[in-house]
Amino acid sequence: MVCVLPPNGAFAFDVFPANAQNAGAQCSSTQDGVAVGWVAVRFSTPTTLDAVFSASVAQLAAGLEPEAWPGQVSAADLQSPQGLVHYRIQRLQAPVGGEMQFLRVAVAERDGWYLQQIVSAPIASAQEAETAAGEIWRQGLARFSAPNVSDAAAAG
Question: Domain of life of the organism in this record (predicted)?
Fold first, then answer.
Protein backbone atom coordinates (compact mmCIF):
# COMPACT_ATOMS: atom_id res chain seq x y z
CA MET A 1 0.00 0.00 0.00
CA VAL A 2 1.32 3.39 -0.95
CA CYS A 3 0.65 5.88 1.80
CA VAL A 4 2.56 9.06 2.48
CA LEU A 5 1.99 10.40 5.95
CA PRO A 6 2.66 14.10 6.50
CA PRO A 7 5.15 15.14 9.17
CA ASN A 8 2.58 17.51 10.66
CA GLY A 9 -0.99 16.82 9.70
CA ALA A 10 -3.89 14.50 10.20
CA PHE A 11 -3.93 11.06 8.62
CA ALA A 12 -5.98 7.87 8.61
CA PHE A 13 -5.37 4.32 7.39
CA ASP A 14 -8.02 1.63 7.04
CA VAL A 15 -8.09 -1.89 5.63
CA PHE A 16 -11.40 -2.89 4.08
CA PRO A 17 -13.31 -5.29 6.36
CA ALA A 18 -12.91 -9.00 5.62
CA ASN A 19 -16.58 -9.20 4.63
CA ALA A 20 -16.36 -6.25 2.20
CA GLN A 21 -17.34 -6.90 -1.40
CA ASN A 22 -13.87 -5.79 -2.58
CA ALA A 23 -10.45 -6.30 -1.00
CA GLY A 24 -8.35 -3.24 -0.34
CA ALA A 25 -7.16 -0.46 1.88
CA GLN A 26 -7.22 3.31 1.95
CA CYS A 27 -5.22 6.04 3.57
CA SER A 28 -5.66 9.76 3.63
CA SER A 29 -3.84 12.78 4.96
CA THR A 30 -4.48 16.48 5.28
CA GLN A 31 -1.83 19.15 5.54
CA ASP A 32 -2.12 22.90 5.00
CA GLY A 33 -5.60 22.52 3.48
CA VAL A 34 -4.50 19.90 0.94
CA ALA A 35 -6.23 16.53 1.27
CA VAL A 36 -4.63 13.47 -0.33
CA GLY A 37 -6.25 10.05 -0.47
CA TRP A 38 -4.89 6.74 -1.72
CA VAL A 39 -6.99 3.64 -2.35
CA ALA A 40 -5.75 0.21 -3.39
CA VAL A 41 -8.59 -2.12 -4.34
CA ARG A 42 -9.16 -5.46 -6.03
CA PHE A 43 -12.72 -5.59 -7.32
CA SER A 44 -14.67 -8.82 -6.89
CA THR A 45 -16.05 -8.54 -10.42
CA PRO A 46 -13.78 -8.02 -13.44
CA THR A 47 -13.44 -4.45 -14.66
CA THR A 48 -11.11 -2.25 -16.70
CA LEU A 49 -8.84 0.71 -16.04
CA ASP A 50 -11.07 2.97 -18.12
CA ALA A 51 -14.21 1.89 -16.24
CA VAL A 52 -12.60 2.41 -12.83
CA PHE A 53 -11.14 5.76 -13.89
CA SER A 54 -14.47 7.00 -15.31
CA ALA A 55 -16.28 5.97 -12.14
CA SER A 56 -13.64 7.66 -9.97
CA VAL A 57 -13.91 10.95 -11.86
CA ALA A 58 -17.72 10.78 -11.80
CA GLN A 59 -17.72 10.10 -8.06
CA LEU A 60 -15.28 12.94 -7.37
CA ALA A 61 -17.31 15.40 -9.45
CA ALA A 62 -20.75 14.25 -8.27
CA GLY A 63 -22.94 17.19 -7.37
CA LEU A 64 -20.30 19.70 -8.49
CA GLU A 65 -19.97 21.79 -11.61
CA PRO A 66 -16.41 20.83 -12.57
CA GLU A 67 -14.38 22.23 -15.40
CA ALA A 68 -10.91 21.44 -16.69
CA TRP A 69 -8.16 22.91 -14.52
CA PRO A 70 -6.14 25.34 -16.69
CA GLY A 71 -2.87 25.04 -14.76
CA GLN A 72 0.45 23.45 -15.66
CA VAL A 73 0.70 19.65 -15.47
CA SER A 74 3.41 18.53 -13.04
CA ALA A 75 6.86 17.85 -14.46
CA ALA A 76 6.69 14.33 -12.99
CA ASP A 77 3.52 13.59 -14.98
CA LEU A 78 5.21 14.79 -18.18
CA GLN A 79 8.04 12.25 -17.85
CA SER A 80 8.06 9.12 -19.98
CA PRO A 81 5.84 6.35 -18.60
CA GLN A 82 8.37 3.73 -19.72
CA GLY A 83 8.49 0.85 -17.24
CA LEU A 84 5.30 1.91 -15.48
CA VAL A 85 1.84 0.37 -15.60
CA HIS A 86 -0.90 2.13 -17.57
CA TYR A 87 -2.66 4.94 -15.75
CA ARG A 88 -5.09 7.81 -16.25
CA ILE A 89 -5.10 11.29 -14.66
CA GLN A 90 -7.77 14.01 -14.62
CA ARG A 91 -7.39 17.50 -13.17
CA LEU A 92 -10.47 19.61 -12.48
CA GLN A 93 -11.56 22.68 -10.62
CA ALA A 94 -14.96 23.09 -9.05
CA PRO A 95 -16.70 25.08 -6.35
CA VAL A 96 -16.83 23.03 -3.16
CA GLY A 97 -18.62 24.55 -0.19
CA GLY A 98 -18.55 27.95 -1.88
CA GLU A 99 -14.79 27.89 -2.49
CA MET A 100 -13.07 26.95 -5.74
CA GLN A 101 -11.03 23.76 -5.31
CA PHE A 102 -8.41 21.95 -7.37
CA LEU A 103 -9.31 18.27 -7.78
CA ARG A 104 -7.03 15.56 -9.17
CA VAL A 105 -7.75 11.87 -9.63
CA ALA A 106 -5.23 9.34 -10.90
CA VAL A 107 -5.83 5.61 -11.36
CA ALA A 108 -3.52 2.74 -12.36
CA GLU A 109 -4.03 -1.02 -12.71
CA ARG A 110 -1.69 -3.96 -12.19
CA ASP A 111 -2.68 -7.63 -12.03
CA GLY A 112 -6.29 -6.83 -11.11
CA TRP A 113 -5.35 -4.33 -8.40
CA TYR A 114 -6.24 -0.67 -8.85
CA LEU A 115 -4.32 2.19 -7.25
CA GLN A 116 -6.09 5.51 -6.95
CA GLN A 117 -4.81 8.92 -5.83
CA ILE A 118 -7.27 11.72 -5.07
CA VAL A 119 -6.14 15.25 -4.26
CA SER A 120 -8.18 18.27 -3.22
CA ALA A 121 -6.65 21.69 -2.57
CA PRO A 122 -7.71 25.32 -2.42
CA ILE A 123 -7.41 26.80 -5.91
CA ALA A 124 -4.82 29.30 -4.62
CA SER A 125 -2.43 26.41 -3.90
CA ALA A 126 -3.44 24.28 -6.91
CA GLN A 127 -0.11 24.50 -8.75
CA GLU A 128 1.85 23.49 -5.65
CA ALA A 129 -0.62 20.68 -4.96
CA GLU A 130 -0.35 19.44 -8.56
CA THR A 131 3.46 19.49 -8.45
CA ALA A 132 3.55 17.57 -5.16
CA ALA A 133 0.82 15.15 -6.28
CA GLY A 134 2.66 14.42 -9.52
CA GLU A 135 5.91 13.68 -7.71
CA ILE A 136 4.34 11.38 -5.14
CA TRP A 137 2.15 9.69 -7.80
CA ARG A 138 5.26 8.94 -9.84
CA GLN A 139 6.98 7.44 -6.78
CA GLY A 140 3.90 5.43 -5.83
CA LEU A 141 3.39 4.29 -9.41
CA ALA A 142 7.00 3.09 -9.64
CA ARG A 143 6.48 0.98 -6.50
CA PHE A 144 3.11 -0.26 -7.74
CA SER A 145 4.66 -1.19 -11.12
CA ALA A 146 7.68 -3.00 -9.69
CA PRO A 147 7.63 -6.81 -9.74
CA ASN A 148 7.07 -8.32 -6.33
CA VAL A 149 8.52 -11.44 -4.77
CA SER A 150 5.69 -13.71 -5.93
CA ASP A 151 6.13 -12.45 -9.52
CA ALA A 152 9.84 -13.26 -9.41
CA ALA A 153 9.17 -16.73 -7.96
CA ALA A 154 6.60 -17.49 -10.66
CA ALA A 155 8.97 -16.36 -13.42
CA GLY A 156 11.99 -18.19 -12.00
Answer: Bacteria
